[in-house]
C-alpha cells in the first residue's frame, strides 16, 4: 500500500482531522503508541482497520509515565521509519506531537484512578499509570474516535483505559488486541531492543515460565506453589529483580487463589537493565 500518511503535531489539528472524517460519515479509529513500532503495533492498526473506515495512530513518548530513574531519555525513537510502517499498514494519519504540544506551560491536570493502578506494575512504578491515564484521556477526548485499540500485552493498562473511558463517558469503544510474539514466544516490545544477544536468548524464560504456570494451574496445582515455581524459573534464567508473578481477576486485577473465568496470569521482571512484562489467559 503506498497511499500517503498525513502527519499532524497539535491536538487542534488532530481534532480537526478526526472531525472532518466523522463529518464525511466515516467511522474512525485511534491507535495510541510510543513509537519504535513493531508487528505488535501494526496488528493493532490491522484490528482498527477491521473496525473502522479510517485509522489514526499516535506516537508520543509520554514523559509523565516514566519514573525519574527510568528510560525516557533512551527510549527508542524513529518517526520516519514508524511513519513508513504506518502508511504501509493503511493508517491515514499520524499524530506525533512534541511534549510542549501535549503539556504546554501551566499544564496542571492529572487523571488518577482508584484501585486499579495500585497493584502489579503500578506498585513497582509509582505514578506510572497516572501518566498513562492522563495522556490517554487527553488523546481520547481530543480524537473522539469511535474505537481505540490497545494491546493485551499491557494488560493492566488496558484494564485502566477501559475503566477511565467508561467512567468519563468518553464515547470511544476500547478494544483489546492479542499479544503478538516472536517465533520463540517472547512478546514483541520496543524495549526488546535493549536486550543483549545473550539476554535475548534468556528472555524466552518469561513466556515459558508463564506457559508452564498456566498449564499447572489448569491441571489444578496449588496457586501459591505454581507462582513460586514460576519465580524460581525466572531467577534461574537470570531475571531479577522480579517485580511480580501474579494470578488476578482480569478485569479487577484483584489477586485470586484459584483460576476463575477471566483469570489472568501476569509477570514483570528485569533482565539486566531491561524490564519485561508478559501475561496469559488461564
Ligand atoms: P507502546 O508503544 O509500548 O506504548 O505500546 C502501544 C500499544 O501497542 C499498547 O496498546 C500496547 O499494549 C501495544 N503493544 C505493544 N506490544 C504489543 C504486542 N507484542 N502485541 C500486541 N500489542 C502490543
Associated small molecules? adenosine monophosphate
Mean pLDDT: 97
The proportion of residues forming helix, as a percent range, comes to 25-40%
CATH-defined topology of the largest domain: Rossmann fold
**DSSP helical segment count:** 10
Beta percentage is: 15-25%
What number of structural domains do the residues give?
2
Q: How many DSSP E strands?
A: 9
Please name the fourth-level CATH homologous superfamily of the largest domain: HUPs
* CATH architecture label of the largest domain: 3-Layer(aba) Sandwich
Terminal CA distance reads 38 Å
Q: Which H/E pattern describes the elements? A: EHEHEHEHHHEHEHHHEEE
Side-by-side strand order of the widest sheet: 1-4-3-2-5-6
Rg value = 19 Å
Structural class: alpha/beta
Please, could you describe this protein's structure?
The protein has 282 residues and is of the alpha/beta class. Helices cover 38% and strands 19% of the residues. The protein is globular, with a radius of gyration of 19 Å. Helix 6 crosses helix 7. The chain is built from 10 helices and 9 strands. Bound molecules: adenosine monophosphate (AMP). Adenosine monophosphate (AMP) binds next to helix 2 and strand 5.
Keywords:
Rossmann fold; 3-stranded antiparallel sheet; single chain; binds adenosine monophosphate; alpha/beta
Briefly say what this structure is.
With 282 residues, this protein is an alpha/beta fold.
Layout of SSEs?
Blueprint: E1 6-8, H1 11-23, E2 28-33, H2 39-51, E3 54-59, H3 79-88, E4 93-95, H4 99-102, H5 120-124, H6 128-143, E5 147-151, H7 155-167, E6 173-177, H8 197-202, H9 205-218, H10 223-236, E7 242-249, E8 263-271, E9 274-281
Parallel strand pairs: 1-4, 2-3, 2-5, 3-4, 5-6
Antiparallel strand pairs: 7-8, 8-9
Helix pairs in contact: 6-7, 9-10
Bound molecules: adenosine monophosphate.
Amino acid at each position: 500500500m503506498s497511499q500517503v500518511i498525513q502527519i499532524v503535531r497539535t491536538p487542534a489539528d488532530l481534532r480537526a482531522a478526526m472531525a472532518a472524517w466523522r463529518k464525511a460519515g466515516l467511522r474512525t479509529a485511534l491507535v495510541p503508541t510510543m513509537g519504535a513500532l513493531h508487528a505488535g503495533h501494526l496488528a493493532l492498526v490491522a484490528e482498527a482497520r477491521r473496525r473502522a473506515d479510517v485509522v489514526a495512530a499516535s506516537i508520543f513518548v509520554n514523559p509523565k509515565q516514566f519514573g525519574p530513574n527510568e528510560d525516557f531519555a533512551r527510549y527508542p525513537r524513529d518517526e520516519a521509519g514508524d511513519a513508513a510502517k504506518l502508511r504501509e499498514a493503511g493508517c491515514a494519519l499520524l499524530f506525533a506531537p512534541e511534549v510542549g504540544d501535549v503539556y504546554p506551560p501551566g499544564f496542571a491536570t492529572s487523571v488518577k484512578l482508584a484501585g486499579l493502578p495500585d497493584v502489579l506494575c503500578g506498585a513497582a512504578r509509582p505514578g506510572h499509570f497516572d501518566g498513562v491515564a492522563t495522556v490517554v484521556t487527553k488523546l481520547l477526548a481530543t480524537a473522539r474516535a469511535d474505537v481505540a485499540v490497545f494491546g493485551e500485552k499491557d494488560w493492566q493498562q488496558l484494564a485502566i483505559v477501559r475503566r477511565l473511558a467508561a467512567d468519563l463517558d468518553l464515547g470511544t469503544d476500547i478494544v483489546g488486541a492479542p499479544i503478538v510474539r516472536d517465533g520463540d514466544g517472547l512478546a514483541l516490545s520496543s524495549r526488546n531492543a535493549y536486550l543483549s544477544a545473550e539476554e535475548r536468548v534468556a528472555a524466552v524464560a518469561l513466556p515459558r515460565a508463564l506457559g508452564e504456570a498456566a498449564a499447572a494451574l489448569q491441571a489444578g496445582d496449588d496457586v501459591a506453589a505454581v507462582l513460586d515455581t514460576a519465580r524460581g524459573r525466572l531467577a534461574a534464567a537470570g531475571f531479577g529483580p522480579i517485580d511480580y508473578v501474579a494470578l488476578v481477576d482480569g478485569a479487577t486485577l484483584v489477586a485470586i487463589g484459584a483460576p476463575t473465568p477471566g483469570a489472568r496470569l501476569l509477570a514483570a521482571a528485569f533482565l539486566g537493565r531491561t524490564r519485561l512484562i508478559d501475561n496469559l489467559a488461564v
